[in-house]
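Field reference: "sequence" (input) and "structure" (output). Example, Gamma-butyrolactone-binding protein:
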Amino acid sequence: MTTANTERATRTRQRLLLAAAEIFDEAGYEGAAVTRIAERAGLTLGALYFHFGSKQGVAEALMNAQATTIEPHLDSTGLQRLVDITLVWAHRMQHDPILRAGVRLAVEQGSHGMNDATSFEDWRTLMRGLLETAQAEGELEDGVDTDRVARFIVAACTGMQVYSQLATGRADLTERVCDMWALLLPSIAPAAVHANISVDPQQVPAS
């Protein structure tokens, strides 16, 4: 495949993902017809089936795109980077259809016959890696189990966004993430490190 063809295929795939995300976010999995997705993208059903194989294939692509959609280009590392990523996630959950659809599909997948923990495990792996970096740099208390903390953060963020969506349409999700860190940081980081970790959404790029 030539470079031009590869770029065209990438653009087509992205158009389909964005259209599917909007439809899934609006209607859920059951209410999202592949014909609506293709129509919203301005493409044919053949293009959708070529790139994803089925509606389930599109849903899986959206669920598994979450981590790569979220991790921003930040200068921070270790524990600060982990905090920053969760704050960017909370902000983008309010306006990024691909992220919102991926999260909704992952949480609701049992209702449409899917049972795929990949998206949650991708987040766990990303967060564990950042915690391991923090541990190597002396940012964590002795004995902190990085995998256990990573699992907790993934579970906490999943639950928070569901609660926030029901309560405020996710308007308070960033505040809830800040509350999580206010409770969690003192238990995993030495006081001197904790004091230097910024949990300020205004200091984090929104994209």
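The radius of gyration is 19 Å.
The first helix runs from residue 3 to 31.
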